[in-house]
Structure formats: structure tokens, C-alpha cells
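batch job 7 of whatever, protein = Efflux transporter outer membrane subunit
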Amino acid sequence: MTSSLAQPLRLSLAPLLAALVLAGCASAPAPDLSALPATPAAFKSTPVPVPEGHWAVVPPADGAERGAWWAVFHDPVLDDLMQRAQARNTDLQVAAARLQQARAGLRQADAQRLPQLGASLGVARGTNQNAGVTPAPVINQAKPSLNLAWETDLFGRLGLGSQAAALDAQASEALLQSTRLMVQAQVAQAYFALRESDAERRLVRETLDAYRDTLRLSERRLAVGDLGELDVQRLRTEVASTEADALALDRQRAAQENALAVLLGESASGFALADPAQDWTARPPAVPAGLPSAVLARRPDVAAAQRSLMAAQARLGVAQSAWLPDLSLTASGGYASTDLGDVFRWSARAWSIGTLLSMPIFDGGQRQAQEERAGGEAQIALAGYRQQVLTALREVEDQLSGLGLLQAQADVLGQAVASARRATALSDIRYRNGQISQLDLLDARRSELRSLRQAVQVQGAQFQSTVALIRALGGGWEAPASVASAAR
């Protein structure tokens, strides 16, 4: 190459070389995590002593295998309901579609970083004003070509966009996990609410049958003049009131059954769950809470919030890179001829190679506004992540403290039920022997029914809180390996 050509070439490449030197500085701004709450050493409801220096930042483990956590309840009916819900629940279908959408956005962002190749065919007819004759002759021109374009992404703008899209896809995947866990918990809680209603209905129906037996006995005693009408009317009132309670429970159960059908993605008109017609004696399993750091690592909603924060930071980097130059390389090659028959002759070939280094100078404040908007979105994401962490810790604390108090309440109610049953049995014997009034017997039965229903309600609340605790723990209670190794 001659020196006359080398000098212009060096001048034309100077901006490119300077831009390449600055390209290494491109990166997303690091999020300011100083506002995040410190992870506690243990949950206050179940304090676990932890030696100093055993805490470390752990990566999200929302992808850890949770398995069929509901199997700890050993209920085949619940197992079947879970399978049906995971196959047909509409919330899961929407979350899966959003994940597919996010992954497509990632592929689109990645595609912008690759060279773009296209083909074109141009055909034109017009006058040739340069022919020097009047009138200008009419000519035809055909121009097939291949066009190649590539944006070099000197300052990482496209790379940051791809990184943001990847984080969005990961957040969508975590949200799918969160939705799946939510649906599973809702199905389990709806199922146990049905079982609680069945148990209550059974108690009320049994009490109603006992009232009716007593009413028949009282009516016979009234017929022979051994009992006053006032006592019989009081008993009839109690029978009607208890029957109204039973019908209210039937209505409540029907609504719960229909709600469960929706969770399964099935029509309420064709769904029915039979009453097992047996006493509900099951007890919820004990679930260890583990360490707060393990909970925050396992929870998919916390992981989704964290990745949304990182994606917002990457988009802030994209907005900041808009102030820097862009370098585009283009190339095209093809044929051009005024005679269609000669268009693909070698002599008709045409080609071009070009480069464009562009840098915005004045845009009326558009880039500044975009950067401020991206910064605001990053702050929103940071606040959302902080709120999600606080919510996760609060939910675990709520269920742990609730389960402890529910167990104490269940123990007290167990004693109350035993005493009420004994009192009812003694009152029934004394009433049949004429030693006490009917009011005394009714009071004893009301007290027994009230204690039994409270015991069933507390039992149902224990199952509800156990499921809520499992959900709050991220669908399990075994710390992932990353958390366990970081805590050593």
C-alpha cells in the first residue's frame, strides 16, 4: 500500500481504535444493596444458636427440586388432586406462556448481536437525465443483491440488553415456580378446608340426631303428662336451630367444593369430592423452619424479585450507553444491469463495503429522560426486592408462631372435649332418670358440641398453617447444597 493511501486509512480508523479502547468499560451499574434488610441468624419463633462468622451471601436456589411436598400428609386423594391441578390449572398455563414469551424475547435480543444478512431485488424504470439527449431515453434497471450488516456493540449496549432479557427470562421462570407453589398450596388448603367442613357437618348432624331422639322421648313424656309443653317447645327450638347450622355448613361446603374445581381447571358443574364419612383423626406433620438464609434462597418469588432488580440495572446500563458512539459495518454485493438478460453476467457485478461511526449530539433531552426513567425503574425494582425479602421472613414467622399457639390451643381444647363428653353422658343418664331438667341436658350438649367444633376448627387451622409454612419456606424445608456449604 502506498503512503498516500495509508495516511487517509489511518485517519479513518482512528475513531474506531479509540472506541475499541473504551469498549472494555461497558458494564451494568452495580445495584445499591445497602437498603436491603440484614438476614437474621434465626427465626425468633424457633431460635437456633449459630456461631459467629457462619453467614455468607448465597445465590438463589429457586430451581432446586422440591418434589411432591404434599406427600408428607399421606393422603391419596390429595395426591390425585395435585396431579390434576398441575395438568390443567389456568394460572399455571398463563405463567408458562409468560415464560415462553420471555425466552422468545431473549432469543430476539441475542439475535441483534449477530450479523444480519438479507437479499433484495430492485427493478426500476425511468429516464436517464445524464444521456445528454432530448428527450431523455427510458431505461430499465435490475439490481439483485445480498446485504450484510453488523453492529459491533462497542460499548456493550446490545450485550446489556441481552443480559436484561436473560434475567427477565430467569425471573419469569422463577415466577412460574412461584405460581406452581401457590397453586399447590391453594389446592391443599382448599382440600383441608373441605375436610374440616365435612368433620364439622358430621358433628352437627350427630348432635342433631341426638336432639331428635331426645325430642321424641320428650313428646312421649308430654303425651302421658310427665313433662310440660314448655320443655318440649324449647327442645323443638334447639332441633330447628341445629338443623339450620347443618344447612349453613352444607352451603359452605358446596362453595368450597366449587372453588376447588376452579383450582383444578375443571368445571364446577361436573366436579364432586365425596365426604369420606369417617372421623378426621389425621394430624399435620412437623415442619422444621431451617435457616432464614435458606428460606430466602429457596423462595422463587424472592429469586424473581432479585433477577428483576438485576435486569433493571442492566437496562439502566443500556440507557447510559446511549450517550456513546455506535459503529456499524455494512457490506453488499450483487449485480446491476439495464438489460435483464445481462443482469447475472460477471461484468454486471457490483459491491460495496462501508462503516458508520455515529454519535448523538443533541436530542432535546431524550437520552437524559430515558436514563432517568431506567434509574427510576431500577429503584422500584430494588424496593420491590426489599419488600419481597421482608414479606418472606414475615410469612415464615407468622406461620411458626401460629402453629405453636395452635398446638397449645389444641391441647387445651382436648381437655375441654373430654370433660364436655363426660358431662353430657352424666347429664343424659340423670335426665332419663328424672333427676335434672331438660335445660341442664341441653346446656351440656351445647357445651360438648361447641368444644368439638372448636377442636375441629383448630385442627383445620393447623393443617392450613402447615401448608402455609411449607409455601413460605419455598416448597420444602431442606437447605440446598449451596446454602449448606456457605453456612459452614
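notes: The chain is about 60% helix and 10% strand.
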